[in-house]
Specification:
Blueprint (H helix, E strand, L loop, with lengths): L3 H22 L19 E3 L2 E9 L6 E9 L14 E8 L2 E5 L2 E5 L4 E4 L5 E5 L5 E9 L10
Antiparallel strand pairs: 1-2, 2-3, 3-9, 4-7, 4-9, 5-6, 5-8
Amino acid sequence: MLTRRDLLIALISGSAAIGLFTAAENKPPAVMGSSVIDWNSIEAKTNANGSVRNFFQAPTATLDQLECHVTTLNPDRMPHPPHKHLNEELIIIREGTLEVTQNGESKRIGPGSVIFNASNIMHSLKNVGSTPAVYHVISWYSPGMKPKDTK
């Protein structure tokens, strides 16, 4: 039979465990240090438009968040509808032909080309070539720019 003492100990232990779990859940992500990431160590995750390799997404010593991923976009596909966001991003085309639209103005670009999407500028990409397009995306949130509910 359980005594009041047993119930009290169980209640205190359960509360402590919940408190530790909540504290661990709210712990800020570790600051990313210098890194070398081998292309072959990152799994390509397929999606309806092609695939993506997520290299990192973490705070750094000077940024609230730095992200790098590589997208492979199938012909005649867009990774997502036109959009805008607070963070800035740099996109470097490795393979293929993309149509880039920024604030309603479109341009076709190929390998070696660089795109800079400024904060809060409407933009989109579309693979207008006959082969998959591959591009590297590097995006960042400057200090104080990252919304609290964003990874």
